[in-house]
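User: tokens in, sequence out, please.
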């Protein structure tokens, strides 16, 4: 089992009457790229700042590599932080910015030259030693900030939305670069972001946060394919949720009867019996065909719902359909445009269609009176 680099044990942070982080426990494994993901105000940045020592926990304990660092200031914790604004020294060259931590530790000049050179190679900035931060692009500044943080070989690197100031194209490029760098150096990264695509692209595991709690923790594929709550399902991309009741459980699958009477098959929920649930399916898992097409009758092996197209939007790689089912629920469908003249193949508004998908692409979420208390029913 992998060693734990960061452990939070029932950590709470209050700002006067506001509880920013509420009784949070978490283990981050050594060498993993771990992301804290959630909307503004969910507690992710406060959690990161407590790990770094910039905020003091109201209660609970924080461990780094097994050592209790709860009351220690930042400079006594073996962590470094990269912020969104990079915080480079504007009057120093790239070389001196990266060498800053080594000079404070009185490392020999020859060793500094070697380490700075190696670090600039790692972040693909050799030859930029003499430049000042003002002479660099945003992406280059971010690489310098990374090199400066990594050259001290911290136990853990904390990253607080470091790509937030970059444009979309550069942000996507830097996502790949960040993961490459983390893999090469093998240091534990804890990354804070509100961007689900960013977290999914880079992370080994993600903790989705809401209201100071971890709503669900897991690998990106697990969170996307088997979300445990309606919040996670909606935050990690578009999700279609349909209300129903568990009607029957048979082996690894269960039958769920929707509000309008349609019977669907879904992976077996952990709680059996006629309990209110929500059945979910991602838009790209759905196949949409006109009901007039005789081949569209479907199969007993597929889930099937009929409805009417309210809107069809051509968005390049796919066409997005908004379909209203016969019992008034609305589903989003992404249909990939495979033909070169894909726009001409689009189904028309008002057309009667049949939606089909595989039962294994369905997920089930428990419904309670309190939406914040919804729990996963997936086994």
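Assistant: Sequence out:
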């Amino acid at each position: 089992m992998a060693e734990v680099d960061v452990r939070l044990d029932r950590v709470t942070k209050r700002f006067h009457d506001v509880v920013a982080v509420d009784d949070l426990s978490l283990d981050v494994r050594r060498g993993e790229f771990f992301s804290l993901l959630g909307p503004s105000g969910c507690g992710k940045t406060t959690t990161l700042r407590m790990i770094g020592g910039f905020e003091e926990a109201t209660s609970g304990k924080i461990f780094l590599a097994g050592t209790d660092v709860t009351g220690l200031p930042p400079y006594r914790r073996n962590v470094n932080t990269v912020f969104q604004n990079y915080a480079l020294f504007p009057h120093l060259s790239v070389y001196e910015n990266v060498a800053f931590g080594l000079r404070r530790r009185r490392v020999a000049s020859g060793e500094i030259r070697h380490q700075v050179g190696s670090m600039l190679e790692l972040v693909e900035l050799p030859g930029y030693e003499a430049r000042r931060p003002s002479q660099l692009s945003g992406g280059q500044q971010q690489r310098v900030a990374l090199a400066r943080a990594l050259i001290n070989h911290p136990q853990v690197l904390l990253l607080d939305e470091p790509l937030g100031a970059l444009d979309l194209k550069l942000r996507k490029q830097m996502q790949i670069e960040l993961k490459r760098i983390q893999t090469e150096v093998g240091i534990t990264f804890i990354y804070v972001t509100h961007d689900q695509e960013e977290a999914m692209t880079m992370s080994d595991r993600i903790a989705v946060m809401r209201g100071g709690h971890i709503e669900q923790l897991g690998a990106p594929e697990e969170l996307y394919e088997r979300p445990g709550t309606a919040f996670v399902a909606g935050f990690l991309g578009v999700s279609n949720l349909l209300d129903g009741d568990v009607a029957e459980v048979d082996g690894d699958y269960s039958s769920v009867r929707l509000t309008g009477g349609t019977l669907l098959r879904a992976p077996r929920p952990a709680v059996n019996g006629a309990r209110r649930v929500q059945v979910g399916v991602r838009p790209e898992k759905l196949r949409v065909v006109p009901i007039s097409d005789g081949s569209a009758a479907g199969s007993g092996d597929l889930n099937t719902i009929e409805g009417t197209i309210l809107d069809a939007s051509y968005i390049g790689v796919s066409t997005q359909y908004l379909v209203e089912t016969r019992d008034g629920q609305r589903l989003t469908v992404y249909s990939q445009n495979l033909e070169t003249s894909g726009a001409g193949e689009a189904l028309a508004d008002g057309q009667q269609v049949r939606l089909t998908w595989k039962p294994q692409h369905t997920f089930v979420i428990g419904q309670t009176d309190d939406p914040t208390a919804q729990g996963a029913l997936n086994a």
